[in-house]
Amino acid sequence: xxxxxxxxxxxxxxxxxxxxxxxxxxxxxxxxxxxxxxxxxxxxxxxxxxxxxxxxxxxxxxxxxxxxxxxxxxxxxxxxxxxxxxxxxxxxxxxxxxxxxxxxxxxxxxxxxxxxxxxxxxxxxxxxxxxxxxxxxxxxxxxxxxxxxxxxxxxxxxxxxxxxxxxxxxxxxxxxxxxxxxxxxxxxxxxxxxxxxxxxxxxxxxxxxxxxxxxxxxxxxxxxxxxxxxxxxxxxxxxxxxxxxxxxxxxxxxxxxx
Amino acid sequence: xxxxxxxxxxxxxxxxxxxxxxxxxxxxxxxxxxxxxxxxxxxxxxxxxxxxxxxxxxxxxxxxxxxxxxxxxxxxxxxxxxxxxxxxxxxxxxxxxxxxxxxxxxxxxxxxxxxxxxxxxxxxxxxxxxxxxxxxxxxxxxxxxxxxxxxxxxxxxxxxxxxxxxxxxxxxxxxxxxxxxxxxxxxxxxxxxxxxxxxxxxxxxxxxxxxxxxxxxxxxxxxxxxxxxxxxxxxxxxxxxxxxxxxxxxxxxxxxxxxxxxxxxxxxxxxxxxxxxxxxxxxxxxxxxxxxxxxxxxxxxxxxxxxxxxxxxxxxxxxxxxxxxxxxxxxxxxxxxxxxxxxxxxxxxxxxxxxxxxxxxxxxxxxxxxxxxxxxxxxxxxxxxxxxxxxxxxxxxxxxxxxxxxxxxxxxxxxxxxxxxxxxxxxxxxxxxxxxx
Lengths: 258, 437
What we know:
The complex is a heterodimer. Chain A is mostly helical. Chain A is built from eleven helices and no strands. Chain A has one domain. In chain A, helix 6 (about 110-145) runs antiparallel to helix 11. Chain B is an alpha/beta fold. Chain B folds into three domains: about 10-65; about 105-345, Rossmann fold (3-Layer(aba) Sandwich); about 350-420, Alpha-Beta Plaits (2-Layer Sandwich), CATH 3.30.70.1510. Helices cover about 40% and strands about 20% of the residues of chain B. Chain B has a six-stranded mixed β-sheet, with helices on both faces. A four-stranded antiparallel β-sheet of chain B has the order 11-12-10-13. A three-stranded antiparallel β-sheet of chain B has the order 2-1-4. In chain B, strand 6, helix 10 (about 290-300) and strand 7 (about 310) form a beta-alpha-beta unit. The longest helix of chain B is centred in the N-terminal third of the chain and has 26 residues, at about 10-35.
């Protein structure tokens, strides 16, 4: 892919200069900070908010599993929105501004153009997710108990893969429609459809939603709860969705007039 | 700090401070950033801010319950800086630019100098054969176009709006594909090997764009790197290109703040930074002021003999000044192709221009009608007190025209024989094809 390295560097520089990278990273760090805090103090928060009414609500005592659950839930929702926001204008924005033609008038192919964007989005998400996981681990250790670092590395990788799925699908939509709004809408619809489909247990094993359970089990060290087959199929299924989205984006972009 | 029912220990407080700092920092950053006009040109994503603000506000109630209204110290989030690789906008260039903004002498003198003869034995740099491009919806932009651009020449592509000039140039750059027919640029077919073609090509889009967050120098660096240049060779090429388009003083400013003319200069610099054998420029001087136009035309003329330049323009005087050959397109077809002098000899008819005193427009129009009836007059049009008369027999017209003007009683300022221009040829030929259509 001629020009890929140059374009990847350009994408990462752009992510930094236009503040996408620092803002996403800060947002994810905030998620990493707040998730264990929320898990720890949710009973107190409810008690402060509801007073005597809270006494009738059964609230389990806070533990590290809840902190991990909060983190996965927050990253799964807000992180997904951030992934969609990262990818929605990646191609359509350049088409709108006319800068796609500037780059593609040079000796560089459309595969390299899209590949650099996809990889750059993956790197930004990896940095942000890694930071979120790191600070969440520290806070969980301080507030609850020490948890295995290897398990948190697995949590980081699996969460990143789930977010990368949404980013890849949105990038495909951005390349296919040439519209940032349509790409955001399609990315969001895809996320909802996949989430609804995951309500069917046989499908959950194949979709990004199936990554959450194993991620939680690995991070908390509860490997007895881990279903390796489910982990394998969910990872493979998510990787296949990313690959299909990448191929779809290239096919759609190749047909597009600049 | 204390809230009834909630005890706050020092550890919790220490853990909360980073949260509050980041939350407030983000909100302040968002508020400042959204208010800054600079954001528009930096190309940031508003949607990203919306997501962040929604997110931060979702966290608000949690913080409220935990720490009440006494929020932590405010600290702005880190601002953007330069990443290694592209270099900071304020980094000194590796090759220091000369202080002058004046284009090189070769550029300034190229317009005045004689036109060099294109390389006679070299094969044509660009060949177009029966090229057809039909857009979705049925619009026929190119209708069997044939064209041949000699190597080393400066070749002008003319035509009215919608003639197919831009489509032709984009096809040659491999940015779009033909419906049928073929073309070669520097020996390669852009439909088969677009990357190969573009590695031998410098291309300037009509209304060229730039990455607003990059400096001009960084953009040229990216283009040069995509063409395989690196190190000192790349920096020297960038500096040379910036000097040729007189953009050195603005090279380290963000391109988002450039005017249309500066973007056009930057685009031209990008087209020549790798010194390609072929340059295709779509309306290269359309956004420039007269001085800038003169400089860029001089630059194009100075490339004659070393680079083949194909460019489109609406300004016929510019084309006439610097081109060796021109092609006139209309309705996607080639109307005529040839050397400037050849076309003037073949198609430009002798023209007289009669300038009338103010208030004589009606009388001038009547004179034009009478002249059109004469057998040696091929065309006569009056506009803004000026009657332009094209004749088929200049010798006869020399005698008869003055007599006709005198007989009309129109108060005239001058009657003069004008040198035919490319515009006369253009209007005549495109007018004929319009009538035929």
